[in-house]
Amino acid sequence: MPSQTEIDHLAAQSVPARKLLIGGLWQEGQGGDTEVFSPIDGRRLTTTAAASAEDVGRATASARAAFEAGSWSRMAPAGRKAVLHRLADLIESHALELAVLGVRDNGTDIGMALKAEPGSAAGTFRYYAEALDKVYGEIAPTAESVLALIHREPVGVVAAIVPWNFPLMIGAWKIAPALAAGNSIVLKPAETASLTLIRLAELALEAGVPPGVFNVVTGPGRVTGEALALSMDVDVLVFTGSGATGRRLLQYSAQSNLKRCYLELGGKSPNIVFADASDLAQAAKAAATAIFRNAGQVCVAGSRLLVEAAIHDEFVAALARAAAAMTLGNPLDLATQIGAVNSETQLAGNLGFIADATREGGRLVTGGRRVLEETGGTYMEPTIITDVAPHHRLFREEVFGPVLAVTPFTTEAEAASLANATDFGLAAGLWTANLSRAHRMIRAIRSGIVHVNTYGGSDTTVPLGGMKQSGNGHDKSLHALDKYTDLKTAWIQL
């Protein structure tokens, strides 16, 4: 763990104005510059270039040209592997710099940022570096007079649109397997958290990724993201973000070249606590962490707590104590556990959910207010609201903030029904000492991942993706490579 002095030293450094990366060259954007303000204190950090639709066109053309030239797409797997390992080395050697830069940009607490951002990203690049020469084609079982080969080939140009909550981690989930498979990339970071991904692109060039293979276009989604989704040069688009934006991307795909779209969208994930859980105190602490770390800005956050009625009051009291024990403040302080909300817009939306919840009949147990406003930053108390019914907005819609909806249940069947009573199906958790019940609930809950006697925590070996309106894209694991490869059959008459 770095010292507070090291963190403070990096946090005091100025951040240079950032440009677009197209064809291996850093360039101005035709849309001018966008000011970047830190959620820590509201101060101006730097500027990023705003790409126009024409800039996006040049970036996708560059990616296409690089792919066709074959400097990366036809490089021997051992060569791509070496470059990706060098990139992982560079991420690790710049880990503290990247973590501090990211915290200044999006407000994640530094302890989480170190692990979830450069730490995770380096591991992801190493995983796919090692995987790329171990994924084989196939020989089909045919008649002796025929040899049928199934080849895996890179799809071509991949556009990746990445959110602001964990840009480096989620960016790596998309960039690493796409590059490992031999594709070219055009990356569009979120407007409110671009800086670490721009720095990653610099490191990629240093590691030896050829010019044009990795391009970065920054700017507003309504311009930059739309141009990528409408591009005839993009073969696959991968996106993590809101359902509303995901729907538009699918429409743009239909209006252009029918590019494949893989969408990891919202969640309203249930965390279910049965009275027979072996350690209710630990479950309460984990439930608080599941929703309040990173100020609730986690796609798989356990934002709906379903508690068996027999222990409801006792558990909510323990949960409130656990929330009160968490340190909220400057995310660059090593002691902080809950950092800043990403922006004024996000904070206002969070507070609007609380107002609606109390008006609909929810009971505010703790929190519910903006705090530390004198710092100039965007901070919010961890908030617990009980008596939340399935028809309430807080039960159904994703907040993406430190707001927990609590609902009691009496039977296992009711718990499963409540868990599934939203349009989302990204993640879930359950706490029980009954092994049979755990397996029944795993089968009953419609979500991409079900945590049992824990919440959160998985590594690159398993996929992350959702069901229902949480999307169709799976990041992580060897399954992620399927998005970035085409199958080609060779039918050979002998």
Low-confidence stretches: none
Q: Please list the strands of the largest sheet in the order they lie side by side.
A: 14-17-18-13-12-20-21
As a percent range, the share of strand residues is 15-25%
Let me know the average pLDDT: 97
The number of helical runs is 15
Number of strands: 23
Which oligomerization state do the chains in this entry correspond to? single chain
Termini separation: 62 Å
What's the CATH class of the largest domain, please? Answer: Alpha Beta
- Over all CA atoms, what is the radius of gyration? 23 Å
Q: Which range best describes the helical content: under 10%, 10-25%, 25-40%, 40-55%, 55-70% or over 70%? A: 25-40%
Largest sheet: 7 strands, mixed
Number of structural units classed as domains: 2
Q: Based on CA inertia axes, which overall geometry fits?
A: globular
CATH fold-level topology of the largest domain: Aldehyde Dehydrogenase, Chain A, domain 1
CATH architecture of the largest domain: 3-Layer(aba) Sandwich
CATH fourth-tier homologous superfamily of the largest domain: Aldehyde Dehydrogenase, Chain A, domain 1
Given helix and strand content, the structural type is alpha/beta
